[in-house]
Design a protein that fits this description.
Order of helices and strands: EEEEEEEEHEEEHEEEEHEEEHEHHEH
CATH topology of the largest domain: Rossmann fold
Largest sheet: 9 strands, mixed
Number of domains: 2
Shape: globular
Number of helices: 7
Number of strands: 20
CATH class of the largest domain: Alpha Beta
Radius of gyration: 20 Å
Strand content: 25-35%
CATH architecture of the largest domain: 3-Layer(aba) Sandwich
Distance between the termini: 56 Å
Length: about 350
């Protein structure tokens, strides 16, 4: 890591560019090409985040202060989060260190491995650090993909490889607007509101051919990441909050169930099942924070009552994407007719 002496986090950023993402304003000392510049004032007092990616200093922490460890699928360490003087350290093994101040107002990249590319650093910032800092600041966030259809939104939950991005891209190519492909911010009033993330889907290699998308117009997400970002799928993106009409939990058809493989299907989920899915998909900055957990669980209880989740059985066949899309559109149309 390229790091120097330890010192408290500074709040001043001499030269910044302002962006809007996840309903907050980010002021950054480096250009973030994934985001659209924005100069609108922020209404929410929580909604300003200062980012510095050109900081050279060393942040130390007590091993006893670690409150989260996350591993890669192969078992190797990926992320360690720990309390530090004046805030928190997020260490991505072999890639970069990020310092977050106590209030979650400032993010500083305070150590970068020589082999970490700028694309990887921005990916970590936007898709791993900011999403967690939103939770620290009191926003309710989930790991999901969403689109807007005729002015209302639907979201897709599911593990990596379930097909969330491919399905959202298929809907976008048919006229829907992509609202985010990783982190979504939710809020409750008399309805459920979804605040979009940023434009551009991220697709696996096999999805490009299936969707007839030109891979040469895609961009690298990060070193070692087999997904590629497709900016053109972000056409029509809006940062305005959308009413969330339905949440779908994607489930791939099992090989031993021929009917599920051939035909997409929708199944109702119980409130308990829906709650578990939301809890599993939520971003939690500090899973050991009991007060924050209780607040989040109360939020999910209300959310489940207002927007029940449906299980969406998706065949393991790209040729069935139009059928899956039509099933979703029909379900949303029936939901609208109830209002």
């Amino acid at each position: 890591m390229r790091c120097t002496a330890s010192r408290p986090c500074a709040l001043d950023i001499p030269s910044v560019t302002s962006y809007e993402v996840y309903g907050i304003r980010i002021a950054s000392d480096v250009v973030l090409p994934e985001l659209a510049p924005n100069s609108r004032p922020c209404v929410d007092a929580r909604a300003t985040l200062l980012v510095r990616l050109n900081v050279e200093r060393r942040i130390e922490f007590d091993p006893n202060a670690i409150f989260l460890r996350t591993d890669d699928p192969d078992g190797s360490e990926w992320l360690v989060c720990a309390r530090s003087i004046g805030g928190y350290l997020l260490r991505f093994a072999g890639l970069a260190d990020f310092f977050v101040n106590q209030a979650g107002d400032v993010i500083e990249c305070c150590g970068v491995d020589d082999k970490t590319s700028p694309e990887t650093l921005r990916h970590l910032l936007l898709d791993a650090v900011v999403s967690r800092v939103l939770d620290l600041k009191g926003f309710e966030t989930i790991h999901a993909t969403a689109v807007s259809i005729d002015g209302t939104a639907c979201a897709f939950l599911g593990p990596t490889g379930a097909g969330k991005s491919t399905l959202a891209a298929n809907l976008a190519l048919a006229g829907a607007s992509l609202l985010g492909d990783d982190c979504l911010v939710l809020s409750l009033t008399d309805t459920v509101l979804l605040t979009p993330g940023y434009a551009g889907a991220r697709l696996w290699d096999d999805s490009f051919d299936a969707l007839s998308v030109d891979s040469s117009r895609s961009e690298q997400v990060a070193d070692g990441n087999r997904k590629r970002r497709v900016p053109e799928l972000g056409r029509g993106f809006t940062s305005e909050p959308q009413r969330l009409k339905r949440i779908y939990r994607l489930v791939r058809g099992e090989d031993d169930d021929a009917e599920q493989i051939r035909t997409p299907a929708l199944e109702d989920m119980s409130p308990g099942e829906s709650f578990i899915e939301l809890a599993a998909a939520s971003y939690r900055f500090n899973p050991t924070d009991r007060v924050r957990n209780l607040h989040k669980f109360a939020f999910f209880e209300k959310l489940v009552a207002m927007a029940p989740i449906r299980r969406l059985i998706v065949p393991n066949d790209f040729a069935m994407l139009p059928a899956v899309r039509n099933l979703i559109l029909g379900d949303l149309a029936r939901e609208s007719s109830k209002l």
